[in-house]
Amino acid sequence: xxxYAKYVKPYWYAFILGPVxxxxxxxxxxxxxxxxxxxxxxxxxxxxxxNVPYILKIGVLMVITAALMxxxxxxxxYFSIKASVNFAGDLRQDVFEKVQKFSFANIEKFSTGSLVxxxxxxxxxxxNLVAMSLRMxxxxxxxxxxxxxxxxxxxxxxxxxIVIIIPLLSIVLFLIMGKGFPRFKxxxxxxxxxxxxxxxxxxxxxxxxxxxxxxxxxxxxxxxNSDLKDNTLRALKIVIFTMPVMTLAMNxxxxxxxxxxxxxxxxxxxxxxxxxLFTTYTVQILMSLMFVSFIMIMGSRALxxxxxxxxxxxxxxxxxxxxxxxxxxxxxxxxxxxKGSIEFKNVSFRYYKKNKQNVLSNISFKVEPGQTVGxxxxxxxxxxxxxxxxxxxxxVDEGEVLVDGINVKEYMLDDLRGGVGMVLQKNTLFxxxxxxxxxxxxxxxDHAEIxxxxxxxxxxxxxxxxxxxxxxxxxQGGVNVSGGQKQRLCIxxxxxxxxxILILDDxxxxxxxxxxxxxxxxxxxxxxxxxxxxxxxxxxxxxxADKIIVLxxxxxxxxxxxxxxxxxCETYQEIYYSQMEKEDAV
Length: 586
Fold this sequence. Notes:
Layout: H1 5-8, H2 12-43, H3 52-101, H4 104-109, H5 112-136, H6 139-154, H7 160-203, H8 205-210, H9 214-240, H10 242-266, H11 272-313, H12 322-329, E1 342-349, E2 360-367, E3 372-377, H13 383-387, E4 398-403, E5 406-407, H14 413-418, E6 420-423, E7 432-433, H15 434-438, H16 447-456, H17 460-465, E8 473-474, H18 483-495, E9 501-505, H19 513-526, E10 531-535, E11 547-552, E12 555-560, H20 562-568, H21 570-585
Parallel strand pairs: 3-10, 3-11, 6-9, 9-10
Antiparallel strand pairs: 1-2, 1-4, 4-5, 7-8, 11-12
Helix pairs in contact: 2-3, 2-6, 2-11, 3-5, 5-7, 5-11, 6-11, 7-9, 7-10, 7-11, 10-11, 16-18, 20-21
């Protein structure tokens, strides 16, 4: 539990006051039956007359006790909730921040649905346990101990009944809870699966509808939902036994007490008030055990959730600033991207480190500042993997990647990525206005600059065609704009960073060739000092580049300008002539 200590420390007073105030209520619950017994045995006579002053005196004490119980109960509940909510809020914040630091490789270990579940449902389970524990941590054992002591003080012989039932009941409850934990753990993984199905379906709603796959998606959801339902029932079946077991124990104990206590009353060994008092304490003892059972039920589920949360927090991030931080601590000045030169030195890379097969092998090339470099190759040749090594979305397994002559590992990640603008292969926009999305590139940019940069990406015209212009609200993922419009918005967003290196990963595939040519021309005129790496499927997109790198099966098959490659590179020739044949056929 050391991992959670930091979330307790800021709210230590609430963690202390909550249980302490609940003890005030417990003391009242233990004292109240005794006061009632005094009224029955001493304030009311058998012949029907009563000691009214005595009854009023004890009655006033009961009212005061009830008021203190109210203050203790309300105060204890308030501080318990305050502590648990703040605890969960800080924990959720840290888990989210940890996920934000994950590399792509780290994220791939968890599904999106699983991370959503861990940030929401799992943390809520832990929060509920903390709240319940703070309310019952001292209340349940306090009531148990207090009622047990009072029961023995009232009638030690009759208390033997309780001594017999408690161990038997405790064993049964522990057996029930032991069965529950693994089932709750499985149940949480089924919630992961359901969340993944829902997230995937809603995000790709247009694709589902265009292929008329609604029925198939409904079947997938029904399958995941039924799986969750069955596993939830399987987990809760164990819990269902708790209440009947507790009720049976309570009834058996009460019957035994009434039986043996009634006999003592008949022979004159115990007054009626004491039997009432003893029965009340017995119920309190059993109720305190029931409270403990509730905590154990919640604990079983929360423990499974806690393990999943700790799995995220304990995940070792394989991309970090350790090398740069060491240089900073040594008094060295940390580099920033100022020119935009790039060099790969014998770089090899694979996604799964246990695999022997490389995705990239022995990649070496240089790019001078301000150059435009085209990267082309067949699907799966390693184009995207290669450019993702520049901003350290992944790290190389062998060799070095240099930016401005410095190994990328020597940069702070923020400084390195701040100098690199990247439009990923999958264009993603966020819920909000167009301007809010563009400001991801530069939150301090004024509107005039946003319009100017959008013009470079050929986005300004279509944005202004919308009735709300730059205030047009985009739906999640930007589904209410076309693929080409989305690509141009993403290009504009990257340009607003004013990067020294701009990477376009097949980012104009949905744009017509005429518009694409204008965008390339704007690049040449408006950002001549920015190094541009353009991954493309169409040779026409890179034919005028200063350099073209041809990849084939993770290796460089050719490097040079179009004229050189068309003569010397067989892979480039195959791509070029296949595209020319298609154009001629059209």
